[in-house]
Amino acid sequence: MKFTHLFGGEALFPSGAAWETSSTANSGCCLIPRNPETDAVIAALIGGERLEQPDLADGVVVMLTSAAGEWIPGEHATFRGLCILTPKLEFVWKKDGPVLIPTPGTIDEKGVEDARLTFADGVFYAWYCGYNGKNGRACLATSRDLLHWEKYAPLPGNINDCDNKDHVAFPEKIGDAWYMLHRPWGTEEFAEHYNMPIRLAKAESPLGPWNDMGILMRPIENPEHAHDWLGGGAQPLPLGNGRYLEIYHAACYHKDNYRVYCGAAAILDFNHLDPKNPASMVTHRLEPMIVPSPEFPNECNAELGLDNFFPMGVHLIGDTLYIAYGAGDKVSCGVSCSLSELLAELEQHPVA
User: Fold this and answer.
1) What is 4-347's CATH topology?
2) pLDDT in the model for residue 193
């Protein structure tokens, strides 16, 4: 597979404020179509004249930027900022302060983390992990204008009976229900989730309650690794006829305790879904799809002991697939590839 690293592997947006000095990695995004309703939202941010420039004719990419740093003096946490990009992930505009901040005394009091973004029926959905310094739970924030958000933290349902993160809902209702990928988090209290497979959940509404259906994909264990696990990545991309492309991460600890997160891909087909066995809908799986490389220094972080390609958003323009990803727990970057080539490669890797 050939991937093009956008802008030579450099960050997608500028940073440097106190609230984002520690890291701007793992920023989720999605492509917003052009129509009168969405145009009004975006024009209120960047101006109507900028919106009508040719580079935004195919839509606007909205990104909830990740930011770790200082907000209250002496207090460090994780926030979400707001950025507008072209469909080719070129920088357009960035808000000068965060739009989603931790709420004292709640599950997200130390972090609004790893927010994946979807859009449906005029509503923006930010699927984020609320972190209180010890535990994390699957949370949601919704907005119609991208500036004012209402939190559901944590989301109702049994997905939050344990620590949980790396969750994202499918971008549309499927049949009579909404579906979500989620990844329980193996902590001391929830040691049974040590291997951290991706699971499937179901709800009647995006607001839940979200109830677990079972394991979708287990990590492929390598005896040369100390530990292997998976995590949900970008929002699933519709391919038509009940099929979706999911770009996720496959990660490991090497025996020297060095971590590596690789990009991976799978085809999920609801025509094959057995509600008692969610794994039945995984028809193809390419793992790894892309590996972090020292050729792109942002992807490697010797100080933290990790190499990291952490998918957070995907969209399609023609046959070009754009992937926004967290690089090395440092910044957010992007790659592109041919969708038809990726699907052809996936066809060579059916799941038995």
Assistant:
1) Tachylectin-2; Chain A (2.115.10)
2) 92
